[in-house]
Amino acid sequence: MPISIDSEEATEALAARVREATRRRHSLKIIGANSKAFLGRRTSGRPLDLSGHRGVIAYEPSELVITARSGTRIDAIERLLAKHDQKLAFEPPNFGGGGTLGGMVAAGLSGPSRPFVGAVRDFVLGVTVMDGRGRSLRFGGTVFKNVAGFDAFRLMSGAMGCLGVLLDVSLRVTPRPRQQRTLAFNEDWPRAQGRLTSLLGRPLPVTGAFHDGARLYLRLSGTERAVAHAASTLGGDKAALKIWNELRHMRHPFFAAPRLWRLSVPRTRSVDGLAGDWLIDWAGAQRWLVTPAPDGAVRDAARAAGGHATLFHGVVDGEDAFEPLSPPLMALHQRLKAALDPAGVFNRGRMYEGL
Amino acid sequence: MLGEFDPRLDARFDAYDRETLTARLRTVLPADGLLSAPEALRVYECDGLAAYRSLPGLVALPRTTEEVREVLMACKAMGVPVVARGAGTGLSGGALPFPGCVLLSLSRLAAILAIDPDARTARVQPGVRNLAVSEAAGPFGLFYAPDPSSQAACSIGGNVAENAGGVHCLKYGLTVNNIAALEVVTLDGEILHLGGEALDAPGFDLLALMTGSEGLLGVITEVTVRLLPQPAHARALLAAFAAVGDGGRAVAAIIADGVIPAGLEMMDNLAIVAAEQYCGAGYPTDAAAILLCELDGEEADVASELARVADICRAAGASDVRLARDEAERQRFWAGRKAAFPAMGRMAPDYYCIDGTIPRARLPEVLDEIARLSISHGLPVANVFHAGDGNLHPLILYDARREGELDRAEGLGGAILELCVRAGGTITGEHGVGREKINQMCVQFSPQEIDAFAAIKAAFDPSGLLNPGKAIPTLARCAEFGAMHVHRGAVAFAHLDRL
Fold it and tell me: Is the ipTM of this complex over 0.85?
């Protein structure tokens, strides 16, 4: 049954379920739209469905802040923001269109603009989260400059729901650029990488840089003047804007591969010794790979390039999705989880075995 | 007074044998790397919040990560509290020594290790000054964006510990948005590498958690910062208003129009007059408030956007709008704002800088209430603030030599911070909680939230030896302070209507 938490009674009912799970050490599987069920390790657990806990709580365009319940759909939030010429700058993917705010923060995935504007965690201003003792905790707030208390709200971004149940989230929103344009360059990745290194050292309004194997696509965003000026200095061919949405929501045919790797590496480095098909986003900092190479070889190559690899699609039972942590870091993760979730009930094992 | 640690409320540690610890630290530190003479310790008795003072037992000055590690392990083994210190410019008493502690100064880890202009990163040691990073990156056409007003002196390690902000946050973000990686030493002597050269790292976002943790979780020994290309062009505008509320409305209108200024600062009449007397910036001293707005980017673009801002200010009731004609005039506009704090030093023997943030829309009413509090406490308050992000810096003028004035200034400061919380904001926008705002933490957070913070702290430092009595209050302190009842209900917004 989807949960709606619109009253103290409903909050208390959720808290009672959480406390009961903690007492019995049951695992709870937190679900929004379940659109990112493929992400992370395969787990079992009793479903805790938050998709009914929806609705915008506060939105004041001149404050550049929106607060909504965690089950609120991302597309509903974006439609509301668009009415006021605002947007979520980090362009979260919305698989199948039904994704929720809570899932967006928990998965911590950001779209093509990420290297240029920041990730989900850079735009989360505050969260209310229920911990393993059934306590509703508000971390952060609704203002951008806020250094009171630990940044536990940023910690929730990308934590895969392992630290608590997100109840509501406050996000910083940004004005929509008045003008956008796509430029395309017919060149292979090594040439494109060189071009990017040079142009990213200059103050240009670039908000996307992606290579599909044959062409480099650049997106420019800003005022009419700024975009026109940058386009005239950069050259290239004009291309459609829709590719950015295909990329953002992973609707590009490349992403249909049953076993898909994501390599997060420094954009200026090369990843050596891996055969396969590449799709390169984030100006080189996020590289998607379909390869017959064994898992160990993929992880080793990503590490050698100064980054890490995630098995994004195609994780089977018992298999790791994320890069394993060093023993001291893993021990710290376990202590941190225990601080908020003492019986380890939330999304047990979703991120790592033993967490 | 808050400056004194109260062992009943904050932390109590068993006495340790100073001779034994000294002998042990002498074996791991260079000959001049351990200070114990009273006159040498005196230098470290306070940070930028000089009203609070206490003496450390020893001062350690390591030169390497390994020496930091040895110091921490020695302190852990003997149960000695440790307070890390960067340049000591902090304004919240975050580096105030716990009485008898080991004060761990990172000032000798001060090397810029590498600048990678292609990756746009700089790897630096924590004692490097903020401004030195931008100076070193300048020849590559790059800069480090966070620019706290103390940037000529403050250190990067301290910036990370406090999640420092500055004038340009609205456009470029805080410290947390501008760093890539940290090397951190835990009290256990574990060397952790958080974040990395890639845009994300596996696991929890410990890089974000460590940023702004005020020295409670670990000691930062290396920082990799992200650099940005220097903007091609910057121009500034000064708008004068006959009423503070008009200036506040102009700020909201500029943001609502979709303009993101590089800087958007406001000063009230007392601050204008003080700055004008101090440095002759050309400010209109009859204005109730002035707004400084700077835009950066491509030249033609900046000019057209600035014209929009000028129109918005006039529509909001600005009596005078001046566009800086050249770079010299732009610098002059900023000189007055940057001189606002020292200028206060001429208006009164002492001033106390407050640091709260509120939603922008609440600016006029919060300023009215601050004016009322100023009268009821009998101390003048000048206001300078980062208007673009609602970060207020009320400056309370007082004279510490007069009986009771410091206490009154503290009381007024606390009342202003609680006002910020009631307005939907926070008790600290960029200076940190430190020692100064430890009581107000009990106003902003519930006992459950304070308890969760304490549990996070214990996950890193179960013995509580790292910077005790700062940033996160004990529940005993909150009970004593008696502020628990002020807190909102258990679930924020639970009963509000949906939109």
Answer: yes
